[in-house]
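PROTEIN DESIGN WORKSHEET
SECTION A - STRUCTURE
LENGTH: 335
TOKENS:
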């Protein structure tokens, strides 16, 4: 027997919770299905201690409930989680946990979505459950499944290998040679954190990037209300050049041809919001290396042919979307 509702929301991250809050506020029946055993699992379980929202308060609060006035401009992970706890209680949201959605199809006859979810908490053997709703909301985000590239020889590596989602802080990395692979926001901040804990830190930067300060990014978002994307991007590139200078000699090339917000909008390439990493790169505390080519024992070989020994490798290589695995809508395309 299918469980019937008006709206099925897949994912209990911040977007899924905000959707459920708006629906509950209008007394529209809904069910939130969540694969994990808690809401906002990325924030709760899979992020590092020093994490703060990168964008100023007004850009990050969820629908219908602003952040408390006492919160600072850049909200910490603990504060964000406390806010979400309040939010879930206030809007009486009760996600159904440990439900991994395996398929969602729209039935043209009944005009309803049929969603099949595996109950991961079913004890002996998982059970598949059916949910039926008039509307489906996909709130599984851009960060649902971890991505680690295949690196030749990685299986011969004797040191520790983790994905950025397992990194909490630099305890235990003091004086260790640590390589962070990936120069997105996770990689750049984890490198900064490791260095603060006394790790000998390197970061492998494969592609050109935009680097902005938190203030530049928030100012840019605010300016988008009044100015075009291209104008805002030109201002941001100007400010970034002025503030950070040319980073080529440190191994970081600026992304040319597409401004920071255009790159985000067109190809999901987020600008790096600098939290202090660039200063450490300039001072030599953090070493920038090119793309990783292969691993040979405890040595990592880079694109320039050089190789170095590392005690640990942290793959901050991002995520894969999961939507295409279960959403059966041939006419929709997701990048
Ligand atoms: N405080 C905050 O609000 C924070 C927000 N975030 C956000 O979370 C999201 C995820 O960020 P993040 O975890 O950094 O992931 P991203 O996808 O943003 O970054 C992944 C990085 O890994 C690199 N990479 C991928 N594959 C390879 C490979 N085979 N070899 C070498 N490098 C590779 C990418 O380089 P390339 O471009 O060459 O593919 C890129 O630099 C983003 O939206 C980010 O902005 C993250 C941290 C903090
Ligand atoms: O408001 C948007 O469209 C966003 O994606 C916000 C956002 C998240 N991370 C960022 C990094 C730099 C600039 C904007 C964002």
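SECTION B - SEQUENCE
RESIDUE ASSIGNMENT:
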């Amino acid at each position: 027997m299918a469980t019937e509702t008006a709206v099925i929301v897949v994912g209990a991250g911040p977007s899924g919770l905000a959707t459920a809050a708006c629906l509950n506020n209008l007394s529209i029946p809904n069910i939130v299905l969540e694969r994990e055993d808690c809401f906002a699992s990325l924030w709760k379980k899979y992020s590092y201690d020093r994490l703060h929202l990168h964008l100023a308060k007004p850009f990050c609060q969820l629908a219908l409930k602003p952040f408390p006035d006492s919160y600072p401009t850049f909200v910490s992970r603990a504060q964000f989680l406390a806010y979400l706890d309040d939010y879930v209680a206030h809007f009486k949201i009760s996600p159904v946990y440990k439900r991994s959605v395996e398929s969602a199809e729209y039935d043209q006859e009944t005009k309803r979505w049929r969603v099949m979810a595996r109950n991961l908490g079913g004890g002996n053997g998982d059970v598949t459950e059916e949910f039926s709703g008039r509307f489906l909301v996909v709130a599984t985000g851009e960060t649902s499944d971890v991505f680690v590239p295949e690196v030749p020889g990685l299986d011969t590596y004797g040191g520790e290998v983790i994905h950025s989602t397992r990194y909490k802080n630099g305890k235990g990395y003091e004086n260790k040679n640590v390589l962070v692979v990936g120069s997105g926001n996770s990689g750049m901040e984890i490198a900064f954190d490791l260095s603060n804990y006394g790790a000998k830190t390197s970061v492998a930067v494969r592609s050109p990037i935009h680097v902005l300060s938190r203030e530049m990014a928030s100012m840019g978002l605010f300016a988008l209300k009044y100015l075009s994307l291209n104008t805002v991007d030109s201002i941001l590139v100007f400010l970034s050049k002025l503030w950070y200078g040319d980073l080529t000699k440190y191994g970081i090339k600026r992304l040319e041809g597409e401004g920071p917000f255009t790159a985000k909008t067109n190809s999901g390439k987020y600008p790096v919001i600098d939290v202090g990493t660039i200063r450490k790169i300039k001072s030599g505390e953090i070493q920038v290396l090119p793309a990783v080519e292969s691993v040979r024992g405890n040595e990592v070989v880079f694109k320039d042919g050089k190789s170095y020994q590392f005690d640990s490798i942290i793959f901050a290589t991002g995520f894969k979307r999961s939507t295409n695995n279960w959403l059966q809508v041939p006419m929709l395309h997701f990048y």
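SECTION C - NOTES
The two ends are 35 Å apart (CA to CA).
The CA atoms of residues 177 and 200 lie 5 Å apart.
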